Protein 1
Amino acid sequence: MARMKFICDAERCIECNGCVTACKNEHEVPWGVNRRRVVTLNDGVPGERSISVACMHCSDAPCMAVCPVNCFYRTEEGVVLHDKDVCIGCGYCSYACPFGAPQFPSAGTFGVRGKMDKCTFCAGGPEANGSQAEFEKYGRNRLAEGKLPACAEMCSTKALLAGDGDVVADIFRNRVVQRGKGAEVWGWGTAYGSKTDAKGAKS
Amino acid sequence: MSNLKRISGLASALLLVTGLTACGDKAQELAGQPKLDAAPYTGTGVKVFTESDWKAGDKNSWAQQLKTRAQYGQNDHSRSN
């Protein structure tokens, strides 16, 4: 098995925030904490693009490099996780992360010290798989249940792909090759209309 | 001569103390090492939430389960064409 990875297809994402909702529901994430969010570029302008962003489980994770208490670890499947019993909530990882993935809750299950919380690729944490302690600190461990992350599985347009890097890369590559680009894309004319030249001919 | 002896005695005592200071240093390894995490293919033991198409503890069947699930759930091209 290769490394676990997320890919978000900006051509497909419709900014429905289904992934965000799925994540919050699956892990009972407290208010004010968004392990995943949808970012839109050129919002409201024709050609706007949205992507769903969370921890990307970097191969050379900057959060791991800067953590002063070494609370991060990487699983055999390439998922970057952390131990909340070790985390001191200093926020260095937040400055280091280029995706803004680390979150710092100030109340609720995680306590007032605000220990860091982030996407776990639905792989739980260092507590026993499927235990109540794991759920309360890190959320559901779907990987250990033979499932993939809830955000990707719930994505209505299948813009967000998650799983074995080789498998999701193949799915994405096949999709890009088949759909073409611009006006070649199915539904383009319906969505954006067709250009008409001076003689009334459609292009 | 006695002064020289005294100075050299003091110097060697100082050297000895300085040398021993290093031996008395506390270990500076990071105190909080993360706990070891159980591999996901070992399962959760909660049957009701676990997919039935793989066997807990069998890494290959777990990996195959995730690949099949990714293809079925996310590869809409293969499902529609």
Protein 2
Amino acid sequence: MSLFNVFNISGSAMSAQSQRLNAVASNLANADSATSANGKPYKAKQVVFTPMATSSADATGVKVKKVIEDASPPKVIYEPKHPLADAKGYVTMPNVNVTEEMVNMISASRAYQNNVETMNAAKTMLLKTLTIGQ
Amino acid sequence: MLNKLDAALSFHQNALRVRGQRQELIASNIANADTPNYKARDLDFSAAMKSALAGVSNAASKSAQTLNKTSEQHISGTPSASTSSSGAPGEPLFRPIIQGSVDGNTVDMDVERNQFADNAIRYEASLIMINGQLKQMLSAIQGQ
């Protein structure tokens, strides 16, 4: 029954998008974390999506393939009073681009909404199908 | 007699099945709107419908898929339309690219949402038709 598979497809997309939103939240929260467990500044994390096979051969869901660390260079600010400042007074800050993360957040939440509506439409169609012959 | 009842309903039964399949494909396009290198796909509904209808009537001619009869009293088994749908017409096709994106994804959310709503309405139209046919049959049977 192909309509039931819509739940699997949209559900996989919803969990993938919420994982993306999770990464955005982590990046925004740590936008100013100049140090972490390994002593280096926090590195922005990005999720990579990949199609995921479902019970139907043609339709594919989506899943998070891996979480990568952003390779862009860290921000360097001049702040001699900072405890982590080097000999010249520069501090290495995380490579989080706040503007990019905000855009990412809006994109993830819109994609999530789209999938919720897809699921709702499939639910309505199935419920209507159950009323055949009544 | 039952055969005729089945034939009367088979058109919309097939239509509902193909619409359901198409809904699934569009849902998968919407789900993969942010997946790099994903190519949006859709059914050519009229081709898929034609092959679904042909699958029912041509099923008896496909000797390779019919069941073996070891006794005269066995009924002749014919494959259902769903198992013979692997033919070329009616298979999912890739959507033409209107505005490509840098990551190689070809999902256009406006098109997908449009087609999704359109397909859902047409699915419900088929449901209403099938309900009407059933009511018609009931009133013919009851003779009221």
